[in-house]
Every structure is written in structure tokens, then in C-alpha cells.
Design goal:
The protein is an alpha+beta fold. Helices cover about 50% and strands about 15% of the residues. It contains 11 helices and 6 strands. A 6-stranded mixed sheet has the order 2-1-6-5-4-3. Helix 3 crosses helix 7, helix 6 runs antiparallel to helix 7 and helix 6 crosses helix 8. It is globular and about 65 Å long.
């Protein structure tokens, strides 16, 4: 294998990890990695002292450019916008470092930051770059990067839950919800949902989906019960792991129809995210 290609492949998991957290899209992250590869292969590598620093800079700056146009697109998006789901059951360790940083809830919090705040926060908190390296990547002073990180960290922490159950507890909660729905056990169903549970669905205007967030236990119960009763013939529900958390993958005649992820509190489900936009499910087919 060509030495340059080997070096790039060694850094590929890191590059995808940065890009996915920056963009919230599997396909856009893969495009960013490919663009970084092309730029790296076109560079005089003898002049590159640190491949990791060079590649991190290229992909972060590419993502920053992408986010500028993405913000306009998401403002015009039909209905709630949700990140593309990422299957993580067999994901590499590099991607799962700080696994909470790829949860749906966390990625949605990142959307509330400016692009450069997002980059600085991720590079520091998730990937543990020092401020000197971050400053070189984003083209800001170290002092400015420290301020950006501090502001972003306070904002993110204010939106994070105080308690997150263990992986086994999460699996049990989500499994119980599926069993309750399948049995029509409304009493158990109700105990598993927080009183102020919120459901968001992303159909992107391309398929039938709730166009506004649904709030409250009874409202969400009715919606989910209705979905289950109206499920088409040939549909199956698989309990798996998406974005480092338990999730349902719903298939119709073997094709992925939707992905449902859950935000969990101590003993109940606080948030439900349903991705139905076909463009966000293509990589799962």
C-alpha cells in the first residue's frame, strides 16, 4: 500500500468521527473524509510535519464551510430536523470515544452552537486537542479559543441531563416499551414515559410524519399506539444500537422505513426521535 494512503487510512476513523459530530450527517461526513483524502493526496507530503494536524485542519475547515450553507438549509427544512442515525453496535473505538458525544440529544445540542464554537468545543472536549492546535485549525488566537470553549461548554452543560442510566438499564427500558406496545399494555406503557416526554419526527417533507414536536405522556402514547396499529404488513421492529444508545429500526419488507431513538432519564423515557426521511436512511439500506 502506498505510504500516503496507509497514513490516511490510519487517520480515517478520527476524521469521520470529527466530521460526523460536526455535521450530524453520515453521508456528509463521508463526503468530507473523501474531500480530505483528495486534498491530502494532492499535497507535497514531505512538507507535512504532522499528518494528524494537517488532516484534522483540512476536515475541520471543510466542515465549517459546509455548516455555513447547512444552517440556511436547516432553517428552511420542512418540519423538525434530526441528525442522520449512525449504527454503532460494531463501530470502531475511535468513533465511540466519549460515546455520549454522538447521542441524538447531544448532536441536537451542538446545533445550537455557532459553527466555530462547535469545532472548538468538539476538538477540546471530545478529541482532547490542546488550545495551540485548536487555534491553528480554526484560525483563531488561543485566547479566543479558550473563550469560545468556555461559552460553548456552559451552554452544552445547561442542556444535558443530570443522570444517564447505564447501558443495560437503557436496553431494559427500551425493550420494555416495545413489549408494552406489542401487548397493548397501556398501563406499563405510561409508566415508561416521562410526564413531559417530547417526540420529534423527521420526514423532511418526503414521507408522512409529525410536522411539529409532540409533548406530554398521553399525546405521545396516542401517537405511538396509532403508529403501531397502522403498521403495514411485512413490518418488523429490531432492537439495536444507534448513536451509542438503544433504538428501534423499523423495516417494511426488509427495507429500513424508520429509526426511533430514545433519550432516557433515571427510570423513564424523556425524549423520542423518529427519523423517516428516506435520504437520511439510505446508508442503512
Amino acid at each position: 500500500m502506498d505510504k500516503r494512503l496507509q497514513t490516511f487510512e490510519e487517520h480515517r476513523p478520527l476524521l469521520f468521527s470529527i466530521a460526523y459530530r460536526m455535521l450530524g450527517s453520515v453521508m456528509e461526513a463521508e463526503d468530507a473524509v473523501q474531500e480530505t483524502y483528495l486534498r491530502y493526496m494532492a499535497t507535497d507530503v514531505d512538507a507535512v510535519q504532522s499528518p494528524k494536524a494537517f488532516l484534522s485542519t483540512v476536515i475541520t475547515r471543510f466542515c465549517l464551510d459546509q455548516l455555513k450553507s447547512a444552517r440556511v438549509q436547516r432553517e428552511e427544512y420542512f418540519g423538525p430536523w434530526l441528525p442522520e442515525p449512525l449504527l454503532t453496535a460494531d463501530a470502531p473505538d475511535e468513533l465511540l470515544a466519549r460515546h455520549e458525544s454522538i447521542s441524538m440529544a447531544f448532536l441536537l445540542l451542538l446545533e445550537t452552537l455557532s459553527p466555530v464554537e462547535r469545532a472548538v468545543f468538539l476538538l477540546r472536549e471530545v478529541f482532547e486537542y490542546d488550545y495551540g492546535a485548536i487555534a491553528a485549525i480554526v484560525g483563531k488566537s488561543e485566547a479566543n479559543c479558550r473563550q469560545l470553549h468556555s461559552r460553548a461548554k456552559k451552554h452544552i452543560q445547561s442542556g444535558q441531563p443530570r443522570f444517564v442510566p447505564s447501558g443495560q438499564e437503557q436496553q431494559q427500558l427500551v425493550g420494555k416499551l416495545l413489549h408494552a406496545m406489542q401487548r397493548g399494555d397501556s398501563d406499563t406503557f405510561a409508566t415508561l414515559l416521562a410526564e413531559d416526554v417530547e417526540l420529534r419526527a423527521d420526514g423532511g417533507g418526503k414521507v408522512t410524519s409529525a410536522t411539529h414536536p409532540l409533548l406530554g405522556r398521553q399525546v405521545v402514547m396516542r401517537f405511538l399506539t396509532g403508529l403501531y396499529k397502522k403498521r403495514p404488513p411485512g413490518s418488523t421492529v429490531e432492537l439495536t444500537e444507534v448513536n451509542a444508545a438503544p433504538a428501534w429500526v423499523v423495516r417494511v419488507d426488509g427495507k429500513v422505513d424508520s429509526v426511533m431513538s430514545f433519550e432516557l432519564g433515571e427510570r423513564e423515557i424523556r425524549g423520542i426521535r423518529i427519523i423517516r426521511n428516506p435520504e437520511k436512511l439510505r446508508h442503512l439500506q
